[in-house]
Design a protein that fits this description.
alpha/beta; 8 strands; 2 domains; 275 residues; TIM Barrel; globular; eight-stranded parallel β-barrel; single chain
Length: 275
């Protein structure tokens, strides 16, 4: 499971303050915490205005890579900011994101190709957010074809079928899961990624929904997620799901996580039930 650590995001007030004040120590600390918790990529999302975002992304990339030996997920709707991040990134970056929209598909895929980067591609086109599994699958195939045309290897393409809030549209959890399963069959070699938290928007006990949804998605073929790796319960779900699905040889990763104290205490025995 590929973990993309989401904590360095300018939509967070504290992170935004650190970006604006150039508080490198705070950003580096957040990067190290996520690396130590098991992240494979560190998300770098400035979330600042278009007049300064390119400069801010370049600063974030430089600070994070000075702190940890991990590649970054350079995350922005601004193509100039993606390019600025790539210019200073060391190693193979992950770009978030391309879409099937006419104005965005070609430029972002071209950026990824020219810099040898991996790329997240959202199942979004000019008609708007997909509602059905079939719409997601069709857009995913279109994106994969466009990536093929640019000689972007399938293993460098991450398809995001887009989670939508089940509290607003009750059929969207199942539609996402069905899309994941179908994309896994239709597009062998691609990665399938999700930012989980949208599914529980405006619902009570959101962490419970997020954890359950993650386990279900892994069972359908999800192999990457944008999440907080410091959330021990969420990370424990990944360990358990991979063990149960035969993705963890002899369950050794799960056992190592338990012995290292990485599984939360409330995941242990329920207690002595003898009278």
């Amino acid at each position: 499971m590929i973990i993309i650590g989401e904590r360095i995001n300018g939509t967070s007030r504290r992170v935004r303050e650190a970006i604006l004040s150039r508080d490198a120590d705070f950003i580096a600390h957040q990067a190290r915490l996520q690396a130590e918790a098991g992240a494979h990529y560190i998300d770098a999302n400035a979330g600042t205005g278009p007049d300064r975002e390119a400069e801010d992304i370049a600063w974030l990339v430089t600070v994070i890579q000075a702190a940890v030996e991990l590649p970054l997920c350079i995350d922005s709707p601004n193509i100039a900011a993606l390019h600025a991040g790539l210019q200073v990134h060391q190693g193979q970056a992950l770009l978030n994101s391309a879409t099937a929209e006419e104005s965005r598909q070609q430029p972002v895929l071209e950026l990824a190709r020219s810099h040898g980067a991996r790329v997240i591609a959202l199942t979004l086109d000019d008609s708007g957010l997909p509602k059905t599994a079939e719409q997601r699958i069709a857009i995913a195939k279109q994106l994969a074809h466009a990536a093929d045309q640019m000689a972007i290897a399938r293993q460098h393409l991450f398809i995001d079928p887009l989670t939508r809030a089940v509290g607003l549209e009750n059929d969207q959890g199942l539609a996402f899961l069905e899309a994941v399963a179908a994309i896994r069959v239709a597009l062998p070699g691609v990665h399938i990624v999700s930012g989980l938290s949208n599914v529980s928007f405006q619902m009570p006990a959101r962490p419970l929904l997020n954890r359950t949804f993650l386990a279900m998605a892994i069972a359908r073929g999800l192999d990457a997620a944008i999440l907080d790796p410091l959330d021990r319960r969420l990370m424990a779900v990944i360990s358990a799901a991979q063990a149960l699905l035969g993705q963890d040889e002899m369950c050794m990763d799960y056992i190592r996580a338990y012995r290292a104290g990485l599984l939360p205490e409330d995941c242990g025995p329920a207690g002595d039930l003898r009278p």
